[in-house]
Amino acid sequence: MANKNGVEWSIRVGDESSMVLEPEHEHGLMRLCDRLKGLVVRFVMRVWMFLKKAWDLGVDDPRKFFHCLKVGLALVVVSLFYYMRPLYDGVGGNAIWAVMTVVVVFEYTVGGTLYKCLNRICATFLAGSLALAIHCVASRSGHRFEPYIMGISLFILASATTFSRFIPAVKARFDYACTIFILTYSLVSVSGYRVDHLINLAHERLSTIIIGTCLCIITSMLVFPVWAGLELHLLVPRNMDELAKSLDGCVAEYFGHGDDECKKILRGASSRSCAYCIETLTSFLNSKDKVPEPIKNHLESACMNLSSSSTNVIKELATIVRTMTRSVKINMAIEDMKNAVQELRNDVTSLPDLLICKPHELEEKTGPVSSETNVMSLLEAMPLVSFASLLIETASRIEENMVKSVEELAEVARFKRSKDEEKLKHNQTSNKVVYDEQALQRV
Q: Domain range spanning residue 171?
């Protein structure tokens, strides 16, 4: 059957009715439209997810947003040396070096910005002075030897400076300065061979770099400054909190009480010596040696109690560092942890008695036991004993390392006393005064 748009095909179905088939090119056009629509939807979703992540990043840490504004502000101010004629005449066409300086030296923290600024100024001054000195020597040697002297000096200094970047001490502190030294010396020496006013060139370049670095330092210090010391101060309690969550999550997961949040936390467990023990504890989660449930139930309560008390100590230490305030709760938390350690040791010590129990005696101690359960061997309980021993070792490291370190920090940094501690000290002083007065009256 034909129409003005082409040919239509119809088929006869089982109920003697007919069905018209659409042309093939219309199906292809519909599929193409669906694909384009899917591409547009996926693109919009990716843009939306990117904007959402960027928004969440700014909300979590507004200082990063302010840092972007500071960089923009510094670039706007330094660009005035290009746009305003009086300022442009003062520094000449080298004003672009001030803009480049702001771009490369502006860091997130004040210390980082100051470090790169000093490296850039010192390297520029040293390279420029050295290039001027070698240029003077080369110019007095005559036009025949001048290019050879400049070329050889460039080769030697560039090679030696590049090699120095492989030295760990130099790379850690002066890697950026070495790069700027090579760049500045190369530009000044090469351009100095063709430019007569070499001193003016070096002076303008150094002055523009000083302008850019001073602007960066002033902006980073006065506009929402971010200090590296404060970042470190916030990072320490944050790591302590993560360590506490990791310990809780590891023990909960071992005894079957974990969730998806515990698994996420266990992927980032790292905080020095205490974290090493927790990292070892996580290896028991995927162990092929399964401990019988009756034996596991015997130590579950003590392990969970020790885990809880240990995390309380870590969280309290994190609060002390975060607020820079001493706490009277830390002593009680440490005592609870010591009691939990002793409880777990007692339960581990009583394991041999449990292992040699008859099935009906084991049922009385640990709960219902299947008829297939016989006397447990010590070999079957070894993974659980090792887990408990590592948990005790973790508590020991918390007390010996973390607690003592925080106490030393509190003494050196002179953390202020909490209100509860001040009240306790005041009450002790008052009681002592009353006792002394009563003693004097008796005398």
A: 72-222
Q: What is the dihedral of CA 158, 161, 167, 172, to 10 degrees?
A: -120
Q: 228 lies in a domain?
A: no
Tokens of residue 228, six digits = 């590296």
- CA–CA separation, 437 and 56 (whole Å): 63
300 half-sphere exposure, CB direction, 13 A CA radius: 15
Residue 88 shares a structural domain with residue 136: yes
Q: 350 phi and psi, to 5 degrees?
A: -85, 0
The reported pLDDT for the residue numbered 321 is 87
How many Cβ atoms sit within 10 Å of the Cβ of residue 416? 13
pLDDT digits (tens, 9 = 90+) for 50-64: 888 888 887 877 888
- Tell me: do 238 and 218 sit in the same domain: no
Going by the DSSP 8-state scheme, the letter that residue 416 receives in this structure is B
Strands (E), 22-124: none
* pTM of model > 0.70: no
Whether 65 is covered by a domain: the verdict is no
Domains: count for the chain = 3
| Strands 18-21, 6-7: pairing kind | unpaired
* Closest C-alpha to 386, from 314, 291, 301: 291
CA–CA distance from 182 to each of 135, 179, 188, 283 (Å)? Answer: 16, 5, 10, 50
Same domain, 299 and 341: yes
**Which residue numbers in the chain have pLDDT < 50?**
1-7, 13, 267, 269-270, 358-359, 369-374, 433-436, 439-440, 443
- Tokens (6 digits) for 308: 């809880």
215 token code pair: 């602007």
Which strand (E) or helix (H) includes residue 209? Answer: helix 198-222
Residue 227 counted as domain residue: no
The answer to whether the beta carbons of residues 253 and 262 sit under 8 Å apart is yes
**239 domain residue, yes or no:** yes
Judged on CB neighbours under 10 Å (0-12, 13-18, 19+), 177 is buried
